[in-house]
Write a structure and sequence with these properties.
38% helix, 20 strands, alpha+beta, single chain, 508 residues, seven-stranded mixed β-sheet, Penicillin-binding protein 2a (Domain 2), elongated
Length: 508
């Protein structure tokens, strides 16, 4: 008997398996098309009603002359609608190709959602070219929509960045703290500066839109709209031209610049260097961008005008002069000889040059260290510290932006408590010329100068003059506030003012 060739057996087995698979496939098709066909057809034609939250445009931030320093503009965002997260694996390659972004970035954004009902922001503030490409491929992108939303815009970039601040997505900690204020995950909130301290005025009220969507989450029809209410406009006390001049003077340096109206405490300019561009934060900032900013050793996010303290140096001699006059250690006519320094105990404290015989006005004009060493020693560290505190040093000024530090006014008691050491005479001499443990902010020293200029009033500074709602009604107006009055006689302040005038107007 003739044996069946092996190849024929294999062909038969292959044919049997092929027919078996076809039978299973036909059975599956029968189930989908005939048995459950009507169910799937109904689901494909089904529509659902969904509520879409509409972000309110934030109010503008303007300078004292009405020039916009922060405003809002329309942006187009590519999103995957809520409830369609399961489509991300299928959509990622297509969107990555269209948008020119890595697939990993799209998946990262999908995984970073705070709550299921939030959309996935695939790309934000896209240009018209990208928008057109996405629109052309919409039939192949189920669950993908183009969202129109307001986006924060800072037309002058780094100018006034520390003062204005920036916005960001509300954090979990902020949500817990501000739960009663109506914030929800995904909302934007002011993080620093005026954006933060006046957020309640700037944020507005979100609206909502009821839409009918198909099974893929695409909008079929708009059923109703409750429009958002724009935020109020905040007018600052600063002058943009003065601000830009101050920032130009600080360019390439680390430091701060503050100018005040000495009569009211209104801040006319407040510059800090180095700065940053708040437009970086107007979208959801990438983790690598954030790490690059906070890892910068120059600390560009720090507002050095209020958030950094250091010894003030010779500017403190104003307070030493006030203490000397107030406590009777000197008169305006008191003459002290400066041979280039003086001894305190066995240590010689140098002056920056030999001034010869100097009285108080000349000592201020020529910034004679020797004079103020001697005045400080006569007054004593406790009374010198007390006068510094009368001027507002060692405490927050109460300015209407966050991030302010107190600084430090030292005295013998503080040193014993903190360092477990006695106070030495040389430390009193250094204290008198604004050195040593003393730490102040630029804003505090601006207020010291203002108090001398305005007759002894220590003011609360402010950067917002008024807030105006969308109808033009003033809903907040700043009022000058005197925190305390210095116990200095008018003639004492006049002598110090004369010395300060001569610093700026006479050689020496």
């Amino acid at each position: 008997m003739e044996r069946t060739p092996p190849w024929l057996t294999r062909v038969g087995a292959f044919a049997f398996l092929t027919f078996l698979l076809l039978f299973v496939l036909l059975g599956r098709l029968w189930n989908l098309q005939i048995v459950r066909g009507e169910e799937f057809y109904a689901r494909s034609r089904a529509t659902y009603v969904r509520e879409v939250r509409m972000e309110a445009p934030r109010g503008n931030i303007l300078d004292r002359k009405g020039r916009a320093l922060a405003t809002s503009r329309t942006a187009f965002n590519i999103i995957i609608v809520p409830g369609k997260d399961s489509l991300v694996p299928m959509l990622s390659p297509k969107l990555a190709k269209l948008l020119g972004v890595p697939e990993e970035e799209i998946r990262r954004r999908a995984g970073g959602k705070a709550l299921p009902y939030m959309p996935i922001y695939v790309a934000e503030d896209v240009d018209i070219s990208t928008l057109t490409k996405v629109e052309e491929h919409r039939p192949d992108l189920p669950g993908v929509e183009i969202e129109t939303a307001p986006r924060r815009f800072y037309p002058y970039g780094q100018t006034s960045a520390h003062l204005i601040g920036y916005i960001g997505e509300v954090s979990k900690e902020e949500l817990r703290r501000l739960k009663s204020d109506g914030y929800r995950p995904g909302d934007w909130i002011g993080k620093i500066g005026v954006e933060r301290s006046y957020d309640r005025y700037l944020r507005g009220r979100p609206g909502r839109r009821l839409v009918m969507v198909d099974a893929y989450g695409r909008t079929v029809r708009i059923l109703g709209v409750d429009p958002p209410k724009p935020g109020a406009n905040v007018y600052l006390t600063i002058d943009l031209d003065l601000q830009r001049s101050a920032e130009e003077a600080l360019k390439g340096r680390r430091g701060a610049f503050v100018a005040l109206d000495p009569g009211s405490g209104a801040v006319l300019c407040m510059a800090s260097s180095p700065s940053f561009d708040p437009n970086l934060f107007a979208r959801r900032i990438r983790p690598e961008e954030w790490r690059r900013i906070i890892g910068n050793p120059a600390h560009p996010l720090q507002n050095r005008a209020v958030g950094a303290s250091a010894p003030p140096g010779s500017a403190f001699k104003i307070i030493t002069a006030a203490a000397g006059l107030y406590y009777g250690a000197i008169t305006p006519q008191t003459v002290i000889h400066c041979p280039g320094g003086c001894y305190v105990g066995r240590r010689f404290f140098r002056c920056w040059r030999r001034h010869g015989a100097v009285n108080l006005v000349k000592a201020i004009r020529e910034s004679c260290d020797t004079y103020f060493y001697q005045v400080a020693l006569r007054v004593g560290p406790e009374r010198l510290a007390k006068m510094a505190r009368m001027f507002g040093l060692g405490e927050r000024t109460g300015i209407d932006i966050p991030g302010e530090v107190r600084g430090l006014v030292p005295d013998p008691r503080w040193k014993r408590r903190r360092l477990k050491e006695p106070w030495f005479g040389g430390e009193t001499a250094n204290f008198g010329i604004g050195q040593g443990f003393l730490k102040v902010t630029p804003l505090q020293m601006a207020l010291v100068a203002a108090a001398v200029a305005n007759g002894g009033k220590v003011l609360r500074p402010f950067v917002v003059g008024k807030v105006v709602d969308e109808r033009g009604k003033v809903i907040y107006k700043a009022k000058p506030k005197v925190k305390r009055r210095l116990p200095l006689a008018p003639w004492m302040l006049e002598v110090i003012r004369r010395g300060m005038f001569e610093v700026c107007n006479l050689p020496g």
